[in-house]
Amino acid sequence: MDGVKSKTNQEKGNKATGAFDGEVLISRRKFLKGIGAITGLLALEKLACAPKKPEGEVLPPEQPWQPPSVYHDLYPKEYQEEFVPSTCWIGKQDCSLVYRVIKQNVNGKEIRRVVKADGLVIEKATGNIVFNPDEVKKRADELLYNPRNKGTLCPKGAGANVTALYAPNRVKYPLKRINRKGEPGKFVRISWEEAKNLIAQKLTEVKQKR
């Protein structure tokens, strides 16, 4: 019993002093002190090895920040502007709108870009487009407009009608489904002529069933 007690006391003493079976355990405080000392030495070495500024050297003045060149900066400054009437497809109201289209000649090729969508209001006497929807309240009898939106557009209609035209995943050509409905869609590309004939055929079949 005395031997067992003495061995137990020795193990407790080893744990208290940080020694166990010939191994030396480092306390948390000593470990953090060691890490701090190593970090300080590394910082001093970096400062000691940093290049020094030569005496008498004059640094050039700081240049003002310039924005990076973007793709649109490559376009010529001259452009033509046209307005194309259309209808909003975002909601179910079919609000009338007009697209502002910029035409430019870039490297011999005509580029047309839609840059804005507005509500459509037309002056009866001249046929000119009126871009201020407040005019509808002032002289409604002199203007042509859609009674649903009265020359205005909601934020969704004004934004999505433009961004959707240039979305990377937009449909760029006719697609024909080749599997049954209810399954994940599988499509193949077809020509515009084939698409028109297919639509005409389906409409004729629906008409004959009635």
Give a verbal description of the structure.
By secondary structure, the chain is an alpha+beta fold. Among the domains are: 78-170, no CATH class; 172-210, no CATH class. The protein has helices at 2-17, 28-49, 135-138, 155-163, 192-209, and strands at residues 19-20, 23-24, 80-87, 96-106, 109-119, 121-123, 143-145, 175-177, 187-189. The strands form 4 sheets. It has a 3-stranded antiparallel beta sheet. A two-stranded antiparallel ribbon has the order 1-2. β3 (80-87) and β4 form a beta hairpin. The longest helix is centred in the N-terminal third of the chain and has 22 residues, at 28-49. The chain is extended, with a radius of gyration of 38 Å. Residues 1-7 and 15-23 have low confidence and may be disordered.
Measured by DSSP, the beta-strand proportion falls in 15-25%
Strand sequence of the main sheet, in spatial order? 3-4-5
Structural class: alpha+beta
- Uncertain runs with pLDDT below 50, 5 residues or more? 1-7, 15-23
Radius of gyration: 38 Å
Give the overall average pLDDT.
79
- The CA-CA distance between the termini, in Å, is 106 Å
Contiguous helical run count:
5
The helicity comes to 25-40%
Write down the overall geometry.
extended
Largest sheet: 3 strands, antiparallel
Number of strands: 9
SSE ordering: HEEHEEEEHEHEEH
Tag the structure with descriptive keywords.
single chain; 210 residues; alpha+beta; two-stranded antiparallel ribbon; 5 helices; 9 strands; 22% strand; extended
In short:
It contains five helices and nine strands. The chain is an alpha+beta fold and 210 residues long.
